Structures are given as structure tokens and as C-alpha cells.
Amino acid sequence: MLRTRGPRELALRAVRYLRDQSRHVYYFACYVIYEIDTADYIRGLEAPSIDGLKVYVLESESDVRRLVDEGYEDLRRVVRPATRCLQGGAVGFCAFVNRDVAHIAWVGFTREAQRILDVVPYFVDFDHGEACWGGSFTAERFRNLGIYRHVMAWRLRYCHERGYRVLVDATRVDNAPSLRSQFTYNPRTRAFYRYRRFLRWCDCTEM
């Protein structure tokens, strides 16, 4: 890292690593709960102008293995929680650029999948046309290119075609890129939550 990216990048990576490790001890955040109509998928369906961009729907680990056999980067090696998400029933939407993992995001259709995707226990009416989404990750070199917003449209369309009319999610109030992309789809605010965790103790309170 020092030779290829320089001392500044090395220092930034070290700070991020220490910050991430500290979250295992104590974590505090405020979240906004949004709902978005799946029929609004058309707003972001046009793909950004990125050579080699492809999006795949991953409904099981066999879908990941098939892509690996075709020469795509193994999502499970890039995003460690991916295996748990797939085994828990979540559906992944993975964007590749020239067969490298650029972005992954998830949709959940059950309580089990929701618990994997989010720490905030907001209500989702799975029995009446609602699902949840979350767990987004974008590789650093592919950020701010419009991929996240575009994959949101894929997730909305996938759910709309399967009879789900609303997707619900929890977003940190300081996560500006995520909030900015969601505004494309006219989100409606359901609630705000305050989440705290210290070691194994946690508390989540609606504000």
C-alpha cells in the first residue's frame, strides 16, 4: 500500500480500519426509515455510461458459482456477509464492471432476511405487499458513478414484477450518498430510530 498508493492513502486506510474495529465495542447512530413505491423504478433504470457494466440477480449461492465459472470475481470473497445473506433468503443485485465486483445490494422478503440486512427492527408488512432492502456496498473505485442509484432501480423493478408494491429500508441520517440516491425515487419517511450498542448490549428506540 505504501509503495503503490502513498503514505496519505495508507494513513486513511489505517484510520478507517481503527474506526471499524471500534464499532465492535461501541456503536451509535440515528436512522431514518423510508418507504418507496416499487412502481417508481423507471426513474433510475437507464444505466450510467460505464464500459463493461453488467448487473446480475443472485437468488442463491449457485448463481454466484455460475458467475465465477464464467470468469467473474467471486462476490463472497469481496463481501464476506454475502454468503450469510444468500443463505438467509435475501436476494442480491450485483453490478460488475469488466467482471470485477463494483456494487452489491440486497432485498429481503422475510423477517429472517430483514434481521440479516438491518440492525434496526422497523416494521415491514411482508404479508401485504411490502419487502425490505439494504446491505449496500460499493467498491471504492466505483463510487460516485451512479451505480448505486441504477441498482436501486433493478431492485424496485424485481419486486414490482413480483407483486411487491413498497420497499422499506433504514438509512443512517449522515449517509449522504445513500440519501441522495433514494431521493430519486420520492421516498416517504415512516420513522426515525436511535440505535446504540455496547459489546452485546443494544437498544433501539423510535424517536
Please give a structural write-up.
- By secondary structure, this protein is of the alpha+beta class.
- The chain has a single domain, classed as Gcn5-related N-acetyltransferase (GNAT) (Aminopeptidase, 3-Layer(aba) Sandwich), CATH 3.40.630.
- The chain contains eight helices and eight strands, in the order ααββαααββαβαβαββ.
- The chain has helices at 2-5, 7-22, 61-69, 75-78, 82-87, 111-117, 147-161, 176-182; strands at 26-37, 53-58, 91-97, 100-108, 130-138, 166-172, 188-198, 201-206.
- The mean pLDDT is 91.
Shape: globular
Order of helices and strands: HHEEHHHEEHEHEHEE
The H-level CATH homologous superfamily, spelled out, is Gcn5-related N-acetyltransferase (GNAT)
Count of folded domains: 1
How far is it from the N-terminal to the C-terminal residue, by CA? 43 Å
Question: Mean pLDDT, as a whole number?
Answer: 91
Per DSSP, the total helix count is 8
Binned, the helix content reads 25-40%
Strand content: 25-35%
CATH fold label = Aminopeptidase
**CATH class division:** Alpha Beta
Largest sheet: 8 strands, mixed
Number of E-type strands: 8
